[in-house]
Amino acid sequence: MTSKKPLWDHDAHxxxxxxxxxxxxxxxxxxxxxxxxxSADSSVGAFLYVDEAGALEEARRQDRWSAVxxxxxxxxxxPVALKDNIVAxxxxxxxxxKILGEFRSPYDATVVVKLKQAGAxxxxxTNLDEFAMGSSTEHSALAETRNPWDVSRVPGGSSGxxxxxxxxxxxxxxxxxxxxxxxxxxxxxxxxxxxxPTYGRVSRYGLIAFASSLDQxxxxxxxxxDARLLYEVIKGADAHDSTALALGEERTVSQGPWxxxxxxxxFGEGMEAGVRQVTExxxxxxxxxxxxxxxxxxxxxxxxxxxxxxxxxAEASSNLSRYDGVRYGMRAxxxxxxxxxxxTRDEGFGAEVKRRxxxxxxxxxxxxxxxxxxxxQKVRTLIxxxxxxxxxxxxFIVTPTTPDVAFRRGERDDDPIKMYLGDVYTVTANLAGIPxxxxxxxxxxxxxxxxxxxxxxxxxxxxxxxxxxxETQLEPMVWPMGVDE
Amino acid sequence: xxxxxxxxxLEVHVELKTATKLFCxxxxxxxxxxxxxxxxxxxxxxxxxxxxxxxxIRLATRSALxxxxxxxxxxxxxxxxxxxxxxxxxxxxxQYDQPLGEYGWVTIRGADGAAKKIxxxxxxxxxxxxxxxxxxxxxxxxxxxxxxxxxAGVPLIEIVSDPDLRSAEEARLYLxxxxxxxxxxxxxxxxxxxxxxxxxxxxxLRPADFQGNLEDLPRVEIKNVNSIRNVQRGIEYEVxxxxxxxxxxxxxxxxxxxxxxxxxxxxxQRSKEEANDYRYFPEPDLPPLVLDxxxxxxxxxxxxxxxxxxxxxxxxxxMPEKDAEVLVLxxxxxxxxxxxxxxxxxxxLVTNWMLSDLSRLINARGExxxxxxxxxxxxxALLGLIQxxxxxxxxxxxVLEAMFETGQSASQVVKDRGLSQITDASxxxxxxxxxxxxxxxxxxxxxxxxxxxxxxLVGQVMKxxxxxxxxxxxxxxLKDSIQxxxxxSQD
Lengths: 485, 491
Ligand SMILES: [Zn+2]
What we know:
The structure holds two protein chains of two kinds. By secondary structure, chain A is an alpha/beta fold. Chain A has helices at about 10-20, 25-45, 50-65, 65-70, 110-115, 160-165, 185-190, 225-235, 275-290, 305-320, 335-350, 350-365, 370-395, 415-420, 425-430, 460-470, and strands at about 45-50, 80-85, 120-125, 175-180, 195, 215-220, 260-265, 290-295, 395-400, 435-445, 445-455. Chain A is built from 16 helices and eleven strands.
């Protein structure tokens, strides 16, 4: 045998197989990943919390399982990281904010229950923009996360910690959450696979709410097959979440060739040349595979950002009201109740969170509600209809995930609007409730470019299947901090 | 001087009697050690979501239908947002523009007997808040406050009347009737002192020349009054206060006022000039509440007989209106009456005994018809003894009291005390003869036309029989004997 490939260099399928075959113990797998975190994370900063003792204890427990017990659990022997806005019993949860203080959750999120049942070993919690509000992870109040491809650049956000941890091979699987692109955009910037399921496909119970009608938890992985595996584990109806859909029929599509929609509104100004090049090459590859590319129109796209930045902050302003210093988390003492509220929230929340709370509070205020919130909801309906019409004509829609590649840290600090505009290709899927998948399509100037696949509601599995056919046609990814070939 | 019309609208909150809370599976029972009926959901922990309690929707639907409301097949929940330590999420999940029930009414009857329909604008479902216990004597010098979230998330319905009430008395009648209707539905304990029924009163005065929308009148809200009587007192005080202010040329300030039980006065709590903007918006964590119209129809058919129908039925059967009113307003009394009359033909006798002697005993003890030791079968057995002549009315009262005290049956009491009435004429005749012989002057008075003389003689006989003789029998025997032995011969 030639130089043995380190365990952290395997994807989840491979680790699970090694564990089931007895070729690697869970303890060896966890130890390898913990060492990798120790060596790589000092420069990346993906993790806010690593539960070494807990992960090792779980690994030793799993090592006592029989082969049958291992096979029964699809993630047995596989380390997983959680974005730190997903609660796990006994672990700290910060949402990237100071305001939660030393909070430890008394309960498991439904996705965590499902992960544990599937045999996943939870190694820790990853960094994020505070309360998932941001596109660079620079708005975390607690840590800096850097892009493994270029540590002077951001990993994207808000699930930047999860994306960086997966790209730097500290874990094969991580969960993120996506409200306007927060899984797909960092996946694109870090060159990994990230998927936002159909709204309601995955329970939100235990996900710290940002914008309840848009939030979805989804998988972040290095391969499409791993993303599909993780999605299959976490999906499903939940008695704790009234918006989680009962397991309905997943949409199926033929083996192809497919009609693939290319929306003209997504290829306009603002797209970087390198992104355009990689995207067009991928589209050309799809055409050469026999698929029909169809130019389509999603005419209400120009209004999506405006609608999103009214609806999401409105819901956020309400969801974040509970962080008031009364029951848990941080409390700044004040001479009376109102002063305590004001000081706690002033000291506890960062600037971006405050900006959105103000926006949202204003949008819901008497006299402004109709003009802002209600109008935004109407736009949302129109955007949903755009997709309904489009999917009568095409099986999938393919777009770039972002108009740009990972930008330099600090570059957009003073320009929130520019930051918001970066979400232009991703927010529509959240507004419409449809699934979206970002896969790495190539590099532009040495930085990854993501290709986004969209499908109708409940087309989640078909997305993985379709994108996987392209994955095999593309240059295999070389991981930025990977083993030298 | 300007003439004013009293305009009152009431908002009534009723806690629903479900086993669990509205959005989680914690116990909804009253009381408990602080913060023991809690979980991550009702504590507003990060990441939690609400799941609607279907039993609460069932009870709320029954209530709305019983109040003659139209129940929406599709309604929705909204967030009402404000900061307060007893509200864990800093918003209350309520229903704003699509309440469960709308367009209902309650009929009240004034002293003149005239019926008046009071509109029920809406019935909606919402969650209760927790409670604050302030440390210290008064809020002003409290050194801190303890939060108890046992009640947070308990299901409530809010019943909002139209501003149709024109006096404190009408408000009292409305609340009394509303509580009576709800009492037949098994939806709540309806205890105002425990807070399972709470009332806020909106009071304004309309100048005779005011033509605009009633909602535009400056309105004072009296919050959280703990009894129907105090709602009435609070409104009376508030009407007088506002009249005086207006007479003095002053302006009514839109505000919230509390009611002080001891003084009977209302006092300012907070001005509504800087009114709260609750920033209502649709609750994104709950899909719309969709009810099958067939289910709503079934619920309506399944409603029990309600006060209006019961009242009409009782009056039809010849019961005096006043008695019918007393029975209808006390569901336990009415059910007692139903059980008793199912066993006993003479409804009037049942009604009379229930509403006079038994009521008096029950009230004196602070008990109720439901928990009184004299059960309907027991009362009926007693009435049977009266009807058969075994007991006189006076004796029956004594027996009833003993039954009430000891829980014994009527026949047992009668036996123990040797109380049965003498109905055998021959047993009384010798006493009658003796009494007549001992009182010749009285006999003469009677014969000369003084009817009262006979009563004296009856009394004498009753005394010698220790009350056990049947009075009408004694009467008859006396008359017969006087006629036979003392009356001057006709020939
Ligand atoms: Zn609870």
